[in-house]
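FW: tagging you since you asked about this chain on Friday. Here's the raw sequence from the shared folder, copied in full. Didn't touch anything.
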Amino acid sequence: MYSRTVRKIELLSPAGNLETGIEAINHGADAVYIGAPRFSARAAAGNSLYDIRRLVEYAHQYRAKVYVALNTILYDSELPEAEEIIRECYDIGVDALIIQDMGILKLDIPPIPLHASTQCDNRDIDKIRFFEKLGFAQVVLARELSLEDIKTIAKRTNLSLEVFVHGALCVSCSGQCYISQSVTGRSANRGECAQFCRLPYTLQDATGKTLARYKHLLSPKDLNQSGNLEKLLDAGVSSLKIEGRLKETSYVKNITAYYRQKLDAIFEKRPEYARASSGTTTPFFVPDPAKSFNRGFTSYFLHGRKEPVVSPDTPKSTGEPIGNIKDLNRNFFTATGQKTIHNGDGLCFFNERKELQGFRVNKVTDGKIFPAEMPSLSIGTTLYRNFDREFEKTLAQKSAERKINIDFVLEEDEFGFSLTATDEDGCQTNIRHAFPKEISPKNQKENQEQQLSKLGNTPFQLDKLTITFSMNWFIPSSVLSNMRRRAVEGLLAERKNNYLRPERKIPPISPVYPEKNLSYLANVANRKALTFYKQSGVETIEPAFETEAKTNVPVMFTKHCILHQMGCCKKETNVKNDLVEPLFLFSGKNRFQLKFDCGRCEMQVINIAHYR
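HL: got it, structure written out here
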């Protein structure tokens, strides 16, 4: 039996910039996350405090929240600037900071709510409970957790749990990937990942036997948990996060609207769940995640190790399947399938070498598709569309609106008339207008309804109008318009004044960290972080990978297993495994050794040769 307690569920969307953040709100997000001016895990997605302020003001109209990602590890010289950014974020009304570096807790910062970034590697319940004792408001769980893992964590903490539900995947456990740093000096923990996971690799065993050549063996498909949302909510998740601060605005519009519809459908049948913000979103298109950038979809390890999670042939977007080649001509072809192809569409296919090859459609006539340049196609080849021109044109325009329901009550009083406005959250304002009463020979109700419902570009839409006149009073349209405008202004001011941002409760005594010894995996890169862990009972602390050179150590920890992908899992019975370990990955001049920790069901990647 389900609990009768209503739990607010948050749809959390990415905001690469102000424009995208506003559109995420318009298309149904309950919260958005946006990069700080500096120190964000997407260094290319920083934003000015001015733009963040404007986003906060817009979002709060709808009771939607704005989280600022300040989730890189910090060096000592950067701490004063980080401290100043945090203070300014608090002053402009930011709802929470997403952080990785625990040195932040030793700075002189205001009581702004804190979220533990996925970069903190949040897999262990003891660490999550530690964050709870520290006064954190939310924790972003590791992407590779199973549904059962999430249920177990939810039972043992009162923290709000956030999970990724859509978008690009880091094949490594977040915060535990150092390949980019070890090879190029660009740290993923500093927002500068060079994405070595997307490169092609050659796989060899210890004898030099080639097992795979020039394949993207570490490049995962994109996450899509749209079919698992109800299970995630029942497991205890309260925040559902879409990846994509580097994605285009059209992507954020489409994916946000898609998940908004999915969640609203769940709320209709499950009243114990409700949306975490105000308003109703109406998209002007049919959302479809297959039409936005994707590498194929996976639920990752939510249901265990059941499906291939990587896309070995390409790290690029394949888009949506549209059919197979039916007939070929010198400069056109026809295809099976029911999808309508448009002039200007981008199509792609895998050629005979299993390489993704793309081309643009020049025109479509009577089912005949004329490419701008005819590619080398074969009968039966599967076609994909990774750019739908008409869909993108729709999304380039106003593609949704979000409205908050309000009720108007128009009454007479001793001096004239009053208009009371009440919104769906219970905020209320009353406007009085002195005006001589005059009975009209014509019925005024239709004009009164028409004038008061003209809410246009405001965040509101009229749900119910009640007119309680004793007589058929005449009120000029200009007066009704003025009262409506003042009511809207008053209601917006009331909503702003009534918006409450919780503040972080700072524990009087530092809780004890669940480990006594920390390796480089703790990412301790500054003295404040060192002090924090020492005061939390940690005895030995190794410096961060970024601050002290290390060799022959794992530079990636991942639940993805190449042995399993090849059908050679050591834990499965009746599986023939004649591979001679260790296995090696080669990419350019770089060589990595693979180590398999079958007890933890984990693969480690070790940089053993970065030679020039």
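FW: The mean pLDDT is 95.
HL: agreed, and The longest strand covers residues 400-412.
FW: great, closing this out.
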